[in-house]
Specification:
By secondary structure, the protein is α/β, with parallel strands linked by helices. It contains 18 helices and 16 strands. The strands form 4 sheets. An 8-stranded mixed sheet has the order 5-4-6-1-7-10-2-11, sandwiched between helices. It has a 4-stranded antiparallel sheet with strand order 13-14-15-16, covered by helices on one side. Strand 15 and strand 16 (about 425-435) form a beta hairpin. Helix 10 (about 235-245) packs across helix 11 (about 245-250). The longest helix has about 30 residues, at about 275-305. It starts with a helix and ends with a helix.
């Protein structure tokens, strides 16, 4: 009897342990929860740092204890569209092939929207930028800004995936508020106060310096339909570059970025420390606007009792540089551009800060697992909610641009960049940095560290070469001239 009693106790304890394990495993997911993804484009990692710079994002920082924060998170590229495509597909640019604005991802490639739809989710994206990555497949396309979205109304009736995109961190870092007046002490004389003034200056420059643009069919059609007035011409051209149809983008591709730089550089000397302080100030002011938009959505979810039924994500496609490597913008793969925020709120999941190397391709599998859905086998990332995954041997991050002719790989504290110039396709330059000793990537140590360079190259090629490649549609890209194609990468288009 005593033996039977002990056996019974053992069985009961075992059942209890198993049941508890199952319960704890279930608590790691939020089955059937809504998903809201806030994509703040051009958001540097140090722009969301509640320990070092809480004054920049005071509203988000109020909720920091409700998020899992990945402090060493990396984008796979320096441009918006390939970064966004990598998020949707959980794959590197060399796999999805959507290298720039003129590609749609292959409809045969699995993506988070299709996986969620197969599992009963209503899928919504806002802002027309996103349809330039995924041409179809979502249920609803919305165009208002994130601030105008009534998120609770969109997700309250059916489990929903909402992807909302915010682009106000973009160059020239000016406010959309036409009443905004900048009073910063470093403001250059006559610098535009807001985007409305900026666009007016652009129209003046077109009329004065760019007769070929003014006489072009696209501009003339606008003037004719605008009561024979040039007012708003530059804004019309600018919007066609980023949000227009493919033909409008092709027509205007030559001068969209050049005109923007011409206006900006009329007032800003990139080598003047005071001017640079002013540009950084503008960028931080735009981050503060994003901070308010994100916190408004969080508060709205809370007040409608939806916060505990929603997986909420803060992410970005790439960062930005302010002359750290000779440019203002994002046309390289250094850390200021590559490192981005990734915060995820999962109901009933404890707050945590994770310092391990993680990547954009990990985001979709993590979000899917957070709502109890198995990622598609062709998704290349990891579920970061499992400690064994983010503490695994996958301690590297890869980034690519220019159809892969430029790439970087970071492993631990070492980062290698491989750069092939368009004009010298048979010549490749390497840069190697020890980020522990040289976090700003100023001292290239590749000459004295041949073994590290070769190890990182082997890691890169052995990783990339075993991955599949899909065939995105790129008919529009093929219509570009070689000069236009080069300019997309060289000048940081899009």
């Amino acid at each position: 009897m005593k033996k039977l009693s002990l056996l019974a106790v053992f069985v009961i304890i075992t059942i209890g342990i198993v049941a508890t394990s199952i319960h704890l495993a279930d608590n790691k997911t939020c089955n059937d929860c809504n998903i809201v993804v806030f994509d703040a484009d051009i958001f540097r990692a140090d722009g969301l740092d509640c320990e070092k710079s809480p004054e920049i994002t005071p509203n988000i920082c109020e909720f920091k204890n409700e998020f899992i924060k990945f402090s060493n998170h990396h984008s796979p590229t320096d441009l918006t569209k390939p970064g966004m495509a990598s998020f949707f597909t959980s794959s590197y640019p060399s796999t999805h092939g959507a290298w720039n604005e003129f590609y749609f991802i292959d409809k045969n490639q699995p993506n988070i929207i299709n996986v969620l739809k197969d599992n009963g989710y209503n899928t919504i994206i806002n802002h027309p930028e996103n349809k330039q990555v995924i041409s179809s497949g979502y249920d609803i396309l919305l165009e208002p800004s994130a601030l105008e979205l009534n998120v609770p109304d969109l997700i309250k009736d059916k489990k929903t995936f909402l992807f909302t995109y915010e682009d106000n961190l973009h160059y020239p870092y000016l406010s959309n508020d036409q009443n905004e007046v900048i009073s910063h002490p470093n403001k250059p004389v006559n610098f535009p106060n807001n985007l409305s003034e900026y666009y007016d200056r652009g129209t003046e420059i077109i009329i004065k310096n760019h007769q070929e643009t003014l006489n072009g069919a696209f501009a003339q059609d606008y003037i004719k339909n605008n009561g024979n007035s040039t007012k708003g011409l530059y804004r019309h051209i600018e919007e066609s570059c980023w949000n227009g149809n493919r033909e409008a983008m092709l027509v205007n591709n030559d001068y969209c970025w050049k005109l923007g730089k011409e206006i900006f550089e009329k007032y800003i000397d990139e080598n003047n420390p005071d001017d640079l302080k002013f540009v950084k100030y503008l960028y931080q002011e735009r981050i503060k606007e994003v901070d308010k938009k994100i916190s408004k959505i969080i508060r709205d979810l809370k007040s409608n009792n939806l916060w505990d039924k929603t997986v909420f994500v803060i992410r970005s496609d790439h960062g930005e540089e302010f002359m750290e490597h000779g440019n203002i913008g994002h046309n390289n793969l250094y850390e200021k551009v590559a490192r981005v925020p990734f915060w995820i709120h999962v109901p009933n999941k404890a707050e945590e800060t994770i310092n391990n190397l993680t990547q954009t391709i990990d985001e979709a599998p993590t979000i899917l697992k957070a709502v109890g859905i198995k990622p598609h086998p062709l998704m290349q990332g990891r579920n970061l909610l499992e400690e064994k995954n983010y503490k695994s041997d996958v301690n590297f991050a890869i980034a690519q641009k220019n159809d892969g002719s430029i790439f970087s790989i970071r492993e631990g504290n070492y980062k290698l960049l491989s750069i092939t110039n368009d004009s010298e396709l048979d010549t490749t330059r390497y840069e190697l940095y020890n980020l522990e000793d040289d976090p700003d990537e100023k001292t290239n140590i590749v000459g004295t560290n041949h073994e590290i360079k070769e190890r990182l190259l082997l890691k890169y090629y052995s990783t990339i070469n075993q991955l599949p490649k899909f065939n995105p549609s790129n008919g529009s890209f093929n219509k570009l001239t070689d000069e236009q194609k080069s300019a997309i990468f060289k000048d940081g288009y899009f």
